[in-house]
Amino acid sequence: MQVINAIAKILKKEGIEWLIGYPVNPIIEGAAQEDIRTIMVRQERIGLHMCDAVAKTSSGDKIGVFVMQHGPGTENAFGGVAQSYGDSTPVVVLPAGYARNINQVHPNFNAALNFRHVTKSSEQVTVAEATVEALRRAFTQVRNGRPGPVLVEFPTDILRAEVPDELVAEYKAAPRLKSGPDPQSVSKIAEALVAAQRPVIHAGQGVHYAKAWPQLKALAELLEAPVMTTLGGKSSFPESHPLSLGSGGIGIGEHLWHFLQNADTIFGIGCSFTRTSFGTAMPKGKKIIHATLDPYAINKDVPVDLAAVGDAGLTLDAVLEEVKDRLKGKVRDRLAGVTREIRGHREEWMGKWMHRLTADTTPISPYRVVWDLLHTVDVDNTIITHDAGSPRDQISPFWQSNKPLSYLGWGKTTQLGYGLGLAMGAKLANPDKLCVNFWGDAAIGFTGMDFETAVRERLPILSILSNNFSMAIELKVMPISTEKYRSTDISGNYADFAKALGGYGQRVNEPGQIKEAIKRGIQKTKDGVPALLEFITEKAVDVSRYPQ
Ligand SMILES: Cc1ncc(C[n+]2csc(CCOP(=O)(O)OP(=O)(O)O)c2C)c(N)n1
Ligand SMILES: [Mg+2]
């Protein structure tokens, strides 16, 4: 059979339901022949973002596969793959490449070479028979270890070449394996956790990938310890739980800050402790315990006192057992005191923000949009994501997510426009959920055209746009260019834009109209029509930042 048919048959064996892509890549035809739904985007970046959401919303059980053409398509996909890499998201990328006789020749873009630094593995197939083993390697890499994108480049002349049927028939789906922590490390960690007077648990997206939500909750309750998450880990611990400190990031609750500063021990589980502007820094002078899948993360940014390497679920199982053994059924009666302290700080902090969250002013406060959205949607049956910039910092501290994977937090690298593709990919993989992206008018400038893809590919998402005709987050860093040349101003009528692309669009100017508009938007999504609600907002620059 031809290589394109071999690839499609292998994708089927790997349980791939959709092939997301942009022409020209003959694999699209191969996939359609095998009844794999092919989804065409308007630019490569969005397709990769959709793949990310497929993996993120299924804990990596489902893998998104993206294909694009050699040369320009591959060059243009770089941002998308780099975002997957920055966020450690498992994705399979199958670019076409220039034909073998010219693919090493200047100036032809060589994907296998150029994507090497933004992928876990990156190879070029140079003979047709190697198709099968290259995909075996790629799927094994993508399903195991630290998640990340993998790439296999197929020179165009190979895609139509023949590969023996028997070779393809022998292909078996790649296993997904887990490895557990060393028992001695677990013992030391349990000892330190039991000895801690003021422990804080710091949960990252590894908890989502391991589906270790029950164990995380059990450990927190057993230790009577508060839990914060990273942005990527948001929704791994119910934020309505009395032990929740909410999520880290640029915008955080004062209760989170208070507990982190006053902790004696911080237990990071399924996280990398990466130093980033979009995460909460670990204070100095704390006992740091770090449990993570990837030994590369240990001692990378934060020096550790104790560590364990392994799957977050297996690690938490083992730590739970040891902690139970050590406590011998003893309850230390900390719960009431700890939860009272959390509640006190949380309520005081919320009190300070309530006027912003319920503001009646025009232009509308973006915080009011967040608050009304939170109180209009069915939160547990919603998957929401932020975009880069202010919308992220406005929503993440105040959005209370209780169900695992109901909030897609992200951002070690933070590409404007990522949220739209995430919402579309989430809807593809979770058609019964309301899938929402909350973004600004700068973000829509990057990927807005793919709202048409949402319409055409029947992905009825709800898009909440905060239009303040500005890159407001940059006002403080661009005062002179703003004053002289209006360099932070941008403009557009995005409700009309959404309508022009075949979706539902509504512009909302008054705070009193927010909830009704959201209800109408949700109804449209239920009718199968993507909706874009454009809220005319103030150029807000206030963020719940600590230290202030
Ligand atoms: C691709 C990309 N380029 C540049 C940036 C830097 N950046 C982050 S937020 C932002 C402006 C955000 O403006 P907007 O989305 O309108 O939000 P606002 O602050 O106005 O609410 C910029 C330029 C980025 N995150 N991604
Ligand atoms: Mg803006």
Give a quick rundown of the structure:
With 548 residues, the protein is an alpha/beta fold. The chain is built from 23 helices and 18 strands. The strands form 3 sheets. The chain has a 6-stranded parallel β-sheet, sandwiched between helices.
3D architecture notes:
This protein is α/β, with parallel strands linked by helices and 548 residues long. It has three domains: 167 residues, Thiamin diphosphate (ThDP)-binding fold, Pyr/PP domains (Rossmann fold, 3-Layer(aba) Sandwich), CATH 3.40.50; 161 residues, Rossmann fold, CATH 3.40.50; 179 residues, Thiamin diphosphate (ThDP)-binding fold, Pyr/PP domains (Rossmann fold, 3-Layer(aba) Sandwich). Helix content is 39%, strand content 16%. It has 23 helices and 18 strands. The strands form three sheets. It has a six-stranded parallel sheet with strand order 2-1-3-4-6-5, sandwiched between helices. α12 packs parallel to α14. The longest helix is centred in the middle third of the chain and has 23 residues. The site of magnesium ion has 7 residues, from α19.
